[in-house]
Amino acid sequence: MKHKLFSPYTIKNVTLKNRIVMSPMCMYSSHEQDGMVQPFHLAHYESRAAGQVGLVMIEATSVLPEGRISHEDLGIWEDAHIEGLKEVTEGIHRHDAKAAIQLAHAGRKANLKDEIFSPSAKAFNDAFKVPTEMTKQDIDRTITAFKEGAERAKEVGFDIIELHGAHGYLINQFLSPLTNERNDEYGGSAENRYRFLKEVIESVQTVWDGPLFVRISGEEYHEGGNTMEDFIFFSKEMKAQGVDLIDVSSGGVVPAAIDPYPGYQVSYAEQVKNGAQIDTGAVGLITSGNQAEEILQNDRADLIFLARALLKNPYWPKQAADELGYELEGPRQYTRAW
Ligand SMILES: Cc1cc2nc3c(=O)[nH]c(=O)nc-3n(C[C@H](O)[C@H](O)[C@H](O)COP(=O)(O)O)c2cc1C
Description:
Layout: E1 9-11, E2 14-16, E3 20-22, H1 39-50, E4 55-62, E5 74-75, H2 82-93, E6 98-104, E7 117-118, E8 132-133, H3 136-156, E9 160-165, H4 170-175, H5 190-205, E10 212-217, H6 228-241, E11 245-249, H7 266-276, E12 279-283, H8 289-297, E13 303-306, H9 308-312, H10 316-324
Parallel strand pairs: 3-4, 3-13, 4-5, 4-6, 6-9, 7-8, 9-10, 10-11, 11-12, 12-13
Antiparallel strand pairs: 1-2
Helix pairs in contact: 1-2, 2-3, 3-5, 5-6, 6-7
The structure holds flavin mononucleotide (FMN).
């Protein structure tokens, strides 16, 4: 069998050595409320690269202080963040892995002491603050912050940028009719709800011509939310704008009970891939090499994003290779044992 999980994947000028991606995961480890990289981040991300993950994507990193999910999030809102992030990418690159950053803004899901923002003044639930409805000026400032974040990410040396448009965070709040009640050009029709993301992409592209991914929630688990038809519309728009891959997750837009099962989000990645003719990443309870291989061989997605499986085992690629009968070229130092 020709193993697709261990086949390279090229987007623009970047080639990943395999299809295994470390899915972005907040580590809540920036201690001083300053968004700075800590020694923990260096060990955490480099160890997955040593484990032979092809693309290590670092956690949701905020483009503005008020866009953090928590006070412990990483930040990229000022130049002072560049140095620490450079150390992270250097660690990842030492193992022939590529490095990506997820640029994020939490919007109404920011769990912070100060004022928070959203397209509409509607709280996520009783535990969250009521956000301030964003003015056109707030919107412009936030779009500029995404651009500046991308500029810094480029200076750091990231190979790929992903925009966090999923899980009910700011971009998702604009996309969804459940959270966007605006009457201006940013609300109402699907075209208008897409406008904020469209402008973020345009703005990022003025400073970044490398691979660009967008993560979306491909199911909102609530009546009146976006449908697959809407997601395919958004994805076609993104494709036309030059986005390279849609990373398809689900949920988080409004409080809803989800009953996950193995591969529970894969069908959303598959529908977006077929519906918009764009490459996709599959994520969500993918835990074995065989499961990943099935998704790729059946053309249901192009990349496999793993979160919790990689927290449990930084050497998951080796485990998957053994399962599939593939000889993994490990780090030189491990090859005698592997
Ligand atoms: C500790 C933790 C933190 C997470 N933080 C983020 C994040 O920063 N950005 C994001 O898009 N998803 C985040 N997620 C979601 C994961 O990227 C992934 O989509 C989800 O866990 C499902 O994949 P899994 O079943 O392989 O864990 C997080 C998940 C976990 C477990």
